[in-house]
Design a protein that fits this description.
It contains 37 helices and twelve strands. It has a five-stranded mixed β-sheet. Strands 9-8-10-11-12 form a five-stranded parallel β-sheet, with helices on both faces. It has a two-stranded antiparallel ribbon with strand order 1-3. Strand 11, helix 30 and strand 12 form a beta-alpha-beta unit. It is α/β, with parallel strands linked by helices. The chain is extended and about 130 Å long.
Length: 955
């Protein structure tokens, strides 16, 4: 037996050669048979626990079992308890928790048997930590409560206090910071009571961490500084450096950069003493990252970028993946130095990384936990508190202060006069700055809105031009007439916008003149308004014109009157919902013995808020109502209308209530001085309607089980939607929603494979659509591409922060759209492969915050609850999830790549496989247990699923 034992030890050492001097030293101790067995066994415990447990678990298990046999034969009871519990830890590391608990309990029972209460309490405490490290918080909490009481009974004040501290860690991980604070305060009280200086320091560090998370920075700083001070007093400079690092980060977050720099210099000095960091990943990495954040805060962006890139070099040299802090810093620095594309790239990487870090947050509070745990060993007498200033000294200070008060009062009077003078000057300067800021803001708004209005028609023009070129190359003329019509319509829209801007510039410069003619204005207005019937009909709006007079000869400028009426009617149609009503009322009125032409445009649309009414005729002003903003516009139309009415010596007024429509009234004085004219031409400024017939959706003929991906287009511009459908027709089955509300409803009903959504839309904008769909478990898996004319980096970041998977600016390149679509499909395939590889059992055990996996866990649980019901199928699963069969089909298909029926069968087969491995049941019994009525069919599909027959599984 002795020869066999030696052989096993040598074999393990040979197969796992360590470079570390410590490992070599431990091996030499074991093979030195002149040493006492207790020393040799202690070296083996260290070797297993420190070097095998987390990297070579199979070797650790062989070695630990061999040592267990050895100590049992030698009757070394305490060592036997140690190796029995180590075996339990190894099984925990292998995620075999049931076996691990059984092994560990044997060690505890052995300690009870020999009535060694000290060992029992210590092992109970270590079991509580083991549960905590593997996130089994319920068992951890119960075990730590027991260890707290056991340690108190045997007088182990050190572990009694840390049992309390770990209960605080649990509450901290669970987000209950107030409860965590109570436990850490109790730990501090116990440590102070027993005079354990390192534990006092540890408790202060824990409280510093908790108060930082609670946002109580003064308390956090106080406790961290106390922890650092105590660790320095007992010569643990390396431990203190961890606390110093926390102070640096707090001061950076609080933008107190001078303090951060001070502690960073202290951190550099201390860490030079240690070539290999013991309690942090890399000293140099921390220093570069903090220096980057400090330089960023001080606006030294070039230097900050250099520090960030040094961090990346360290990650690359060590083959580490960059963490979220460095990615966030790289994003912010690049954004500040106008490297927008690079900044966006780092932001996307940062978003992906923090999704993964959220799942592991409870396990990664390493700095504070290590900092505190390593301080829990010795006890040294407390140092005396410093004496406060004595009463006599304080009284002396008060007397001197009274003598100064008289001089202070005189000085204050003079200072008040000076302050009053500068305050008046400051207010005057602030008022002027505010005025200039408003002017600049109006200019920025103008350019932003004009850019937006240009991008949408340019998208259609450029896209349809490319399509025509492609068709000509391929000798195709499909829908050429419609494409040319769309190009012409959008070109007219651009020209109209440019003309409005030029007209407004002419008015501002005083170069705009009236070209008056005298004619009957009533037929002219009727003909002009009738041109809007088709546009209103297309939007299903009830449009009517009421004229109180049949004839009215007067002077007017036909071109400018056309612009006025066109702008008013275009706005009314734009901001009136389907099924709404618009009335044009024409009359002649007399006021103060003067005759006026009165034109009223009344709608029951969205209306305007009362506070916005005084500003709507200001140049480039747009009302702040969300629905109006979502519908676009430059803010030029009404301003130009007002200027033209003023040019004709008329007036324009508005009455409106938010949500109840608007009424615009134009009054133009009636004069008859211009030459008569019978031939009046109407300027071509009337927008042509966009027929919805070009966008016939396929939702009525859609096949639920179709293998062709279903793509939903949410776009209020019919031309853009038509172009998108043209681009995608050979690769995707498309359906279309004309606004955000309809888009959400259609998404929930149809569960598309992918969504392309505009941002600025009536009803709900693209950001709201994205946020709504990403927060609903029925649709949170659907990739969303935001397609918009809002192309600034801020808009892109806003879209991504709402959950968008990609962001494309108009006008876009067809190939770029397809590339984005292909990338999203690749991500989906990667998720499907991951789920298929892990299997249902691992999926159920996995703790995740990924909504797709959480929904799938719910599905797997429901299937397993009904595993024995052979009739349980797609319809039953859909009912239990309160969705339709088509919805659950598309959801499961998108996440797993399998149909509902096939996925249910896969779960049954996986469950059957586990029964065959872990029970003595026959193949037929297992087949019936998992809902198969035919064992032969079960065997056939089992082999198709796993590649071998169920009878091949050895019991």
């Amino acid at each position: 037996m002795k020869i066999f034992f030696t052989f096993v030890i040598v074999l393990i050492f040979q197969s796992n050669s360590f470079a570390q001097k410590k490992v070599d030293s431990l091996k030499r101790v074991w093979f030195n048979k002149s040493l006492h067995d207790s020393t040799r066994l202690e070296s083996m415990k260290s070797l297993i626990a420190d070097y095998y447990l987390y990297s070579k678990t199979d070797s650790a298990l062989i070695l630990a079992n061999t040592m267990l046999d050895y100590t049992h034969k030698k009757k070394y009871i305490k060592c036997e308890i140690d190796f029995q519990t180590i075996i339990g830890e190894i099984y925990f590391e292998q995620n075999k928790f049931d076996i691990g608990i059984e092994s560990y309990t044997k060690g505890l029972d052995l300690a009870k048997t020999v009535k060694d209460s000290t060992v029992y309490s210590k092992k109970l405490f270590e079991l509580g930590i083991l549960y905590y490290n593997h996130e089994d918080y319920v068992n951890a909490f119960k075990t730590l409560q027991k260890s707290q009481e056991a340690c108190r009974i045997v007088g182990d004040s050190l572990n009694e206090g840390w049992s309390v501290a770990y209960q605080g860690f649990i509450y901290n991980d669970l987000g209950d910071l107030k409860e965590a604070e109570k436990y850490h305060l109790e730990h501090l009280r116990l440590s102070t009571k027993y005079g354990i200086k390192r534990s006092i320091s540890g408790a202060n560090g824990n409280l510093g961490s908790v108060y930082n998370e609670m946002g109580n920075i003064p308390k956090s700083l106080k406790h961290w500084k106390e922890a650092i001070k105590l660790s320095k007093e007992i010569g643990l400079e390396e431990y203190a450096s961890v606390g110093t690092g926390n102070l640096i980060q707090i001061y950076i977050n609080e933008k107190q950069f001078s303090e951060a720099i001070k502690y960073l210099e202290e951190y550099k000095i201390v860490t030079k003493q240690f070539t290999v960091p013991k309690y942090t990943r890399n000293f140099s990495l921390n220093i570069h990252l903090w220096q980057c954040q400090i330089d960023y805060g001080l606006k030294n962006y070039t230097k900050a970028l250099s520090e960030c890139e040094d961090c990346l070099k360290i990650f690359t040299a060590n083959d580490w993946n960059p963490n979220s802090e460095i990615l966030k810093s790289l994003y912010e620095v690049n954004k500040k130095i106008n490297r927008q594309a690079t900044a966006l790239d780092y932001f996307e990487k940062y978003q992906i990384l923090i999704d993964d870090e959220k799942e592991d947050k409870a396990r990664t509070e390493i700095q504070n936990i290590i900092f505190n745990n390593r301080l829990a060993t010795d006890s040294i007498a407390q140092t005396q508190e410093k004496e406060i200033l004595n009463f006599a000294h304080a009284e002396d200070l008060r007397k001197k202060n009274r003598e100064k008060n008289l001089y202070l009062i005189i000085g204050l009077l003079v200072l008040l006069l000076v302050v009053a003078y500068f305050e008046v000057s400051r207010r005057f300067a602030a008022k002027e700055r505010k005025r200039l800021k408003e002017v600049n803001q109006l200019k920025n708004t103008l350019f932003t809105n004009i850019t937006h209005e240009f991008r949408t028609p340019l998208t259609v023009i450029k896209g349809m031009t490319d399509s025509i070129k492609s068709n000509l190359v391929n000798n195709q003329d499909d829908d050429l007439e419609n494409s040319l019509e769309m190009i012409e319509r959008n070109s007219d829209g651009l020209l109209h916008l440019v003309n409005e801007m030029l007209d407004l510039a002419k008015i501002e410069s005083g170069n705009m003149e009236l070209n008056l003619v005298q004619a009957d204005i009533i037929p002219f207005i009727k003909y002009l308004t009738q041109s809007f019937y088709s546009l209103a009909e297309e939007k299903q709006i009830n449009f009517s014109v009421h004229c109180e007079i049949d004839c009215l000869k007067m002077d007017f400028d036909s071109k400018k009157l056309t612009v006025i009426i066109t702008n008013l009617l275009s706005n009314a149609i734009k901001f009136t919902a389907e099924g709404g009503k618009i009335i044009v009322h024409i009359n002649q009125i007399t006021k103060k013995e003067k005759s006026y032409l009165l034109i009223k445009v009344i709608d029951d649309g969205i209306g305007i808020a009362e506070k916005e009414l005084p500003n709507i005729f200001n140049r480039f002003y747009q009302t702040d109502a969300s629905t109006v903003r979502k519908s676009g516009g430059t803010g030029i139309g009404l301003a130009l209308t007002k200027e033209l009415v003023d040019l004709m010596h008329g007036t324009i007024e508005v009455q409106s209530t938010l949500g109840n429509g608007s009424e615009f009234s134009v009054k133009i004085p009636v004069t008859r001085k211009a030459p008569l004219s019978e031939n009046i031409r109407i300027a071509n400024t009337i927008p042509s309607p966009v027929s919805r017939k070009i966008l016939q959706t396929t939702e009525q003929t859609q096949d639920t089980n179709s293998e062709i991906p279903l793509l939903l287009i949410i776009e209020d511009n019919m031309d853009v939607a038509y172009y998108l459908k043209t681009c995608l027709k050979n690769k995707y089955e498309t359906i279309h929603a004309v606004n955000g509300i309809e888009g959400i409803e259609m998404s929930l009903e149809k569960i598309p494979d992918i969504i392309i959504s505009d941002v600025m839309m009536p009803g709900k904008d693209g950001f709201e659509v994205c946020a709504t769909l990403k927060s609903d478990e029925r649709t949170d898996h659907i990739p969303i591409i935001m397609l918009t004319a809002k192309a600034s980096i801020e808009d892109k970041l806003k879209g991504l922060s709402h959950g968008a998977d990609a962001y494309l600016a108009k006008p876009f390149i067809k190939e770029e759209l397809f590339t984005r679509l292909d990338q999203l499909v690749a991500v989906r395939k990667k998720l499907i492969a991951k789920i298929q590889k892990e299997g249902s059992n691992i999926l159920l055990k996995k703790r995740t915050k990924n909504p797709k996996l959480q929904y799938l866990q719910k599905i797997v649980k429901l299937i397993q609850e009904n595993i024995g019901d052979s009739n349980f199928g797609s319809e039953d699963l859909a009912k239990k999830l309160l969705v339709s069969e088509s919805q659950i089909y598309r959801k499961i298909k998108a996440i797993t790549g399998k149909s509902t029926a096939v996925y249910i069968r896969s779960i049954r087969l996986q469950y059957a496989k586990d029964l065959l491995i872990n029970t003595d049941k026959t193949v037929s019994e297992v087949a019936y247990d998992v809902g198969f009525n035919d064992p032969s069919y079960f065997s056939r599909v089992f082999k198709d699923e796993f590649g071998y027959s169920p009878s091949d599984i050895s019991k």
